[in-house]
UniProtKB/TrEMBL annotation:
Name of the protein this chain belongs to: Formate dehydrogenase, alpha subunit
Domain of life: Bacteria
An MF annotation (GO) of this entry: formate dehydrogenase (NAD+) activity
Species whose genome carries this gene: Nitrospira moscoviensis
Residues of the full protein shown: 213 to 892 of 916
Annotated ranges, domain 4Fe-4S Mo/W bis-MGD-type: 6-62
EC number: 1.2.1.2
Any single GO CC term annotated in Swiss-Prot or TrEMBL for this entry: membrane
One GO term (biological process): formate metabolic process
Entry's family note: In the C-terminal section; belongs to the prokaryotic molybdopterin-containing oxidoreductase family.
EC class (word): oxidoreductase
Keywords: 4Fe-4S, Iron, Iron-sulfur, Metal-binding, Oxidoreductase, Repeat
Length: 680
């Protein structure tokens, strides 16, 4: 790409929540290389292929470069003035005619904190409602519910550097070698050096192969297994009594629950041998410092928030929390899924997880923004689809999130999108969701703007503008300022640093954050309560955010679907190393030459029984839809179980999935859908 770079700009990877630091190499106004930074606090010179080579989508021919207005079945390019006027006019009309609650925003876990905060400000101050959500709803919202309930804060309790301090690591429902590759490589390295590793996963992933014990449970049985571990810990006197007494409450509730989960009973529910359950429980309780990381294999279940609570219960029972080398550490998926929620893109909380009906929060909001903070909780994403279908929701603004490819229940989602009076989508490319839009606004990529992302260890890191966006594309934060100003609520900032200053003035959690302080390699990990505070690498050290850590005894309940004669297989979905979520970015890079389709992993015995050979196209059939994809016999999955990814829109994989969801967080059950497999 045009020779070696002549200058560099320090930035942060735009893919996963590890948040690797990179030096973008520039030449003649273009990015020509991405080199991982030696002093990057979460990557120390390492990177995966997505961060290192998966950025050339930035120059893709099919980037949306002008606002596009729906014109029959096609599009008509229009100027920015006309487009921004249309957005402002449409939302003003909806508010005047149908009231503030007829509009909503779905913001982006790929956008910056500052952009996410401003979209929240738009919906609260301009429209007057809390109808805002982000894609954490479909990944880690169950973590938020589960950890808030038990600890009072939903983010990682410890830091990536704590992997080195742990004496045992438990990986629960996560495949970090593919989804968080730099962290996954670190885990493999530690395991090879002798660190005990317990992996709880239905698949025999790379990290499971390296584990001391792999608890290969049936999909959807996490709560039973975690309660089984708890049973052994309680029955064998492995509780940390002094920690429980000083730091927790509710132990009796939990003890009464786990009493009913002896290993032999749990073996029948989960398929995990009783002796392995005993061995894992003893190791976790007795290591001296056990740290857990968990992923969507815990949260994306009908009882996902219960799974998170059961995991926290184990840490509280054994004192494996609030110390170095321990804790509960959700592996947040997208680059800024942590930050989007921190920035107030939630229907239930304002920036910094502040409660909407807290009079102190409301007064501060009014004083700084000049508008009241709407007190009533807004709609979560699944509620928005219901509201669009019954006519209550008329206007929707979706930023950098392809709901029409990646949400479950796609038939319903697409029908809801098609019913809206006004849908504006902001994206780099014509996504599946954009096909339903009345107006499509181009977006600026992470290489084309300033701002911050917050990684999975709460580290707020700078991204810096490396190149100009093509054809005068505005960063998302400027778009929202322009629309708000046109709607009579002027938003004027000279630079995203001023937006962060405003966020700091509104949120005690971010009070000490400023760009000046972020402009150093270590950046800052929240909470940062004042300008002298160094940031927080270990949470809950002296006291839990809610005071005492709370045990919550949770019973095992089955997933939403069970295999049947018509649909005998359980399908689990997840990511591949080479691609990223809907694939819009990675499919437009050279990485496509490595993997160019979703494939169906099926146990070799099942493939042989059904007469399928490697690469043969098969049809997956669920009660909702069908999808065709090639089969890949693999012993990574057990008999009767299947695995595939969702990176290619042509597969339309998510249209097959179960409509079950976690009752409290509404996180969908992506991990258990029943299907049958037919020859094509
Ligand atoms: Fe980017 Fe994640 Fe890979 Fe690091 S591990 S380079 S943050 S995708």
């Amino acid at each position: 790409r045009h020779g070696p770079p002549t200058s560099h700009v320090r930035t942060t990877c735009g893919y996963c929540g590890v948040g690797c630091s990179f030096d973008a190499g520039l030449r003649d106004g273009r990015v020509v290389s991405m080199v991982p930074s030696d002093d990057g606090p979460s990557n120390h010179g390492h990177a995966c292929l997505k961060g290192r080579f998966g950025w050339t989508y930035n120059d893709a021919e099919d980037r949306v470069r002008r606002p596009l207005l729906r014109d029959g079945t096609g599009w008509k390019a229009v100027g920015w003035e006309q487009a921004l006027d249309l957005v402002a006019r449409s939302f003003s009309r909806i508010k005047d005619q149908a009231g503030p609650d007829a509009a909503a925003v779905i913001s982006s876990s790929r956008g910056t904190n500052e952009e996410n905060y401003l979209f929240g400000k738009f919906i609260r101050c301009v429209m007057g409602t809390n109808h805002i959500d982000n894609c954490a709803r479909v990944c880690h919202s169950a973590t938020v519910t589960g950890m808030m309930e038990t600890l009072g804060a939903s983010a990682a309790t410890n830091s990536i550097r704590d992997l080195d301090a742990a004496k045992l690591i438990m990986v629960v429902g996560a495949n970090p070698t593919e989804s968080h590759p730099v962290l996954g490589a670190k885990l493999l390295q530690l395991a090879r050096r002798g660190l005990p590793l317990i992996v709880i996963d239905p698949r025999r992933t790379e990290v499971a192969r390296a584990a001391t014990i792999h608890l290969q449970l049936k999909p959807g049985t996490n709560v039973a297994l975690l309660n089984g571990l708890g049973h052994v810990i309680a029955a064998e006197g492995l509780l940390n009594r002094s920690f429980i007494e000083q730091r927790t409450e509710g132990i009796d509730d939990w003890l009464a629950t786990v009493k009913d989960y002896p290993p032999e009973v749990v073996e029948r529910l989960t398929g995990v041998p009783a002796e392995d359950i005993r061995r894992a429980a003893r190791m976790y309780a007795a290591s001296g410092a056990s740290l857990s990381v968990h992923g969507l294999g815990v949260t994306e279940h009908r009882w996902g928030s219960h799974g998170v609570m059961a995991l926290v219960d184990l840490a509280l029972a054994t004192g494996n929390i609030a110390r170095p080398g321990t804790g509960i550490n959700p592996l947040r998926g997208q680059n800024n899924v942590q930050g989007a929620s921190d920035s107030g893109c939630l229907p239930t909380h304002f920036v910094g997880y502040q409660l909407l009906d807290d009079p102190v929060v409301a007064a501060r909001h009014h004083a700084i923004t000049g508008r009241p903070l709407p007190p009533r909780r807004g709609m979560k994403i699944p509620d928005m689809w219901d509201a669009a279908l019954d006519g209550r929701l008329k206007g929707l603004w979706i930023i950098g999130y392809d709901v029409a490819q990646t949400d479950p229940n796609l038939k319903k989602v697409r029908e809801a999108l098609s019913r809206l009076e006004f849908l504006v989508v902001q994206d780099l490319f014509v996504s599946q969701t954009a096909k339903f839009a009345h107006l499509l606004l181009p977006g600026a990529s992470f290489l084309e703007k300033d701002g911050t992302f917050t990684n999975l260890e709460r580290r707020i890191q700078r991204i810096r503008k490396a190149v100009e966006p093509p054809d005068g594309i505005l960063p998302d934060w400027q778009v929202v300022c322009e629309v708000s100003t046109r709607m009579g609520y002027p938003m004027r900032y000279n630079h995203p640093s001023e937006i962060m200053d405003e966020m700091a003035s509104l949120s005690p959690m971010l009070a000490g954050v400023s760009y000046e302080r972020l402009d150093r390699p270590q950046a800052l990990q929240w909470p940062v309560p004042d300008k002298q505070h160094p940031g927080t690498w270990l949470m809950h050290g002296e006291t839990f955010a809610r005071g005492k850590g709370r045990f919550v005894g949770v019973e095992y309940l089955p997933p939403g679907e069970q295999p049947s004669e018509d649909y005998p297989f359980v399908l689990v979905t997840g990511r591949l190393l080479e691609h990223y979520n809907c694939g819009a970015q990675t499919r437009r890079t050279e990485i496509i030459e490595l993997v160019d389709s979703d494939v169906l992993e099926m146990h070799p015995d099942d493939a042989a029984r059904l007469g399928f050979t490697a690469g043969q196209l098969v049809r997956l059939v669920s009660a909702r839809s069908t999808a065709v994809l090639p089969v890949a016999p693999s012993d990574r999955v057990r008999r009767g179980e299947l695995f595939t990814s969702f990176h290619f829109p042509g597969t339309d994989l998510n249209s097959l999935l179960s409509s079950s969801a976690d009752e409290s967080s509404k996180c969908p059950e992506y991990k258990v859908s029943t299907v049958r497999v037919e020859p094509v």
